[in-house]
Amino acid sequence: MDFPLEDLIAAWRQVRRGSRSAGIDGITTDLFAGVAKEQLYSLQRQLQQEHYAAHPALGFYLRKTRGGKRLIGIPVVLDRIVQRLLLEELYLPLEDTFLDCSYAYRPGRGIQMAVQHLESYYQFQPTWVIKADIAQFFDNLCHALLFTHLEQLQLEPIVLQLIEQQLKAGIVIKGQRLFPQKGVLQGAVLSGALANLYLTEFDRQCLSHGLNLVRYGDDFVVVAPDWIQANRALEQITTGLAQLYLTLQPEKTKIFAPDEEFTFLGYQFAGGTVTAPPPVVNEDSEAFSESGSPSRRKTRQPPKLKSRPPKTCNIVKRSQFPIADLDHYWKEPMTTLYITDQGAYLKVEHQQFVVFYQGELRCKVPVNRVSHIVLFGCCNLSHGAVSLALRRRIPVLYLSQKGRYFGRLQTEGQAEVEYLVRQVQCALDPDFTRRQAKSIVLGKLHNSRILLMRLNRRVKSEKAAKAIDSLALLMLDVPDAESIEVLLGYEGHGSHLYFQALGTLFKEPFVFEKRTKRPPTDPVNSLLSLGYTLLSQNMYSMVQTVGLHPHFGNLHVPRNNHPALVSDLMEEFRALLVDSLVAYLVNSKIFVLEDFTPPDERGGVYLFPDALKKYLKHWEERLQSKMTHPHTGYKVSNRRCLELQVWEYIACLMGEQEIYRPMTWKM
């Protein structure tokens, strides 16, 4: 995307017609107008060079007419311009995706069309009507699912990056900056369109079930011919929303019988007829004097804009940023910056992370593209790089040159008190922890068994065949386990069977007899240990990002200095991501014995530096490879699957699901 200046000017003109309010920088649209030309030129350069950083919105609470309050955010003028530009870019892909039953936040559609659509069903009496409202809809949109929907639109990567920036920029309320890990901000230009996109799959499911759905934002109705079908439809609606981590608001959700009146979008529905709401009286413009003449002039209203498609943008392939000769540092579509050369130096120049090694520039990466920085061994960061990483909430992970985890540097997490309270309560509930632990163990055993079955099709092994049968029998015993100790025993026995069988499926000259950890005593164990470390740190970041406490687990009992929840959630991914990758690297002869160091004084075997770079390259490719997520049905990257499973656990924690649903492979 080339960000033509004329498109930025058009976006600014639309922003100029909207709210004059200032964001956190105190600049109103009237003030901005005086320097608009210079600011738009500067904005264009920042967008083209990928230096632009979204600002937090100015937040305040607005009281609702029926009680309660709604959080509103006012972005700065520059962010409003960027959001308007992004909305124009999204217009055609979104319209191709949206269905005819949705009417909010769409040019050329509105309340009257939604009412007419509903009337076409309602006029044929008798009808039973489900009128529903989603609880705290805008505040509860799962970012992982929302980004998954956006990725399906085949947008340019820079557009996705800018949308993600806007969503994650945060909000300042009474001087305190917050970083909500879910939801979209009411008051932002993009929010309505993104919210509509989030519910499009729900619309599609309703229509596939034959439901007569009319939706306007998070308000919707479904018309059914009888009471039985209405109740069945309500169950389908509840299930469909649960898959999106949403729930209905009970006090605003009701089934209306044919003889009952109801209101939808201000229109009154009764006995098969529809009555329009009375005209709104503007007190300022309708105040009369005793003589009957207006006491003051009617307030002038700004002209209404006609809905129209956005003007066409010139789309060109974006230029590639400079990269090092060796692509182990960075290449599309990586999001983690790995630095392995001993003595390498990371600094910041013009909002880019810059890596130098032996005085030579190795790569430049725009900060907007980086989600994690991983340092192996003796690598140095400038104060500017540390400061920028903290400001942008980019974790910096420190590992030894051999891949042992030391620690991390990151901004203090935004803990969700609501989650923490539930984590403490659930940790004290043995029934809850046992239910979730059973599910975690079953998920791990299932995926381990599936990997053995897949590998055994290529490299036949009698021990693997026996282990496959034994794991199946072991899985039958798990549901009857009466304690965590018994479950840990099943998990340990299953791991023993699995690794004994896995060792027979590696091609010579590699030999794997048993799992050794600290230190890994053979090449296969070395690859497994490094993979588990990287998997653990990815999961740790996602757990902390959403506001969960990493130390309250279920299968793994909470103890000091051990992120038990991280250990729980990574169990199902060990075979999925790490073990399958190691088998591929070894059996495809991508790695050879010469890639590994001789045993050290403790017997530890590790990758040589050049082989470590090769491993990290394949690890990133594995994270970026796509598979179908079983609980959403979307084809997403493995990295996104990690994030979605964290939200699966939150749904279980908050009582929306009884049992955690692990991510499982199909044969």
TrEMBL record:
Q: Which InterPro entries match?
A: Cas1, CRISPR-assoc_Cas1, CRISPR-assoc_Cas1_C, CRISPR-assoc_Cas1_N, DNA/RNA_pol_sf, Rev_trsase/Diguanyl_cyclase, RT_dom
Q: Where is the Reverse transcriptase domain?
A: 43-269
- Work out whether the entry's keyword set contains Ligase: no
Against SUPFAM superfamilies, the record matches this protein to: DNA/RNA polymerases (SSF56672)
Molecular function GO labels = DNA binding; endonuclease activity; hydrolase activity; metal ion binding; RNA-directed DNA polymerase activity
- Where do the record's region annotations for Disordered lie? 280-311
Keyword Magnesium annotated: yes
Residues at which Mn(2+) binds? E491, H556, E571
List compositional bias (Basic residues) regions by residue number: 295-309
Cofactor(s) this protein cannot do without: Mg(2+); Mn(2+)
Q: Name the CDD domains on file.
A: Cas1_I-II-III, RT_G2_intron
Name any Gene Ontology BP term: defense response to virus
Keywords noted in UniProt? Antiviral defense, DNA-binding, Endonuclease, Hydrolase, Magnesium, Manganese, Metal-binding, Nuclease, Nucleotidyltransferase, Plasmid, RNA-directed DNA polymerase, Transferase
Q: What is its EC number?
A: 3.1.-.-
What is annotated about its quaternary structure and interactions? Homodimer, forms a heterotetramer with a Cas2 homodimer.
HAMAP family in the record: Cas1 (MF_01470)
Say which family it is in. Answer: Belongs to the CRISPR-associated endonuclease Cas1 family.
Outline what the protein does: CRISPR (clustered regularly interspaced short palindromic repeat), is an adaptive immune system that provides protection against mobile genetic elements (viruses, transposable elements and conjugative plasmids). CRISPR clusters contain spacers, sequences complementary to antecedent mobile elements, and target invading nucleic acids. CRISPR clusters are transcribed and processed into CRISPR RNA (crRNA). Acts as a dsDNA endonuclease. Involved in the integration of spacer DNA into the CRISPR cassette.
Query: Which NCBIfam families would you find in this protein's record?
Result: cas1 (TIGR00287)
Name of the protein this chain belongs to: CRISPR-associated endonuclease Cas1
**Which gene is this protein's source?**
cas1
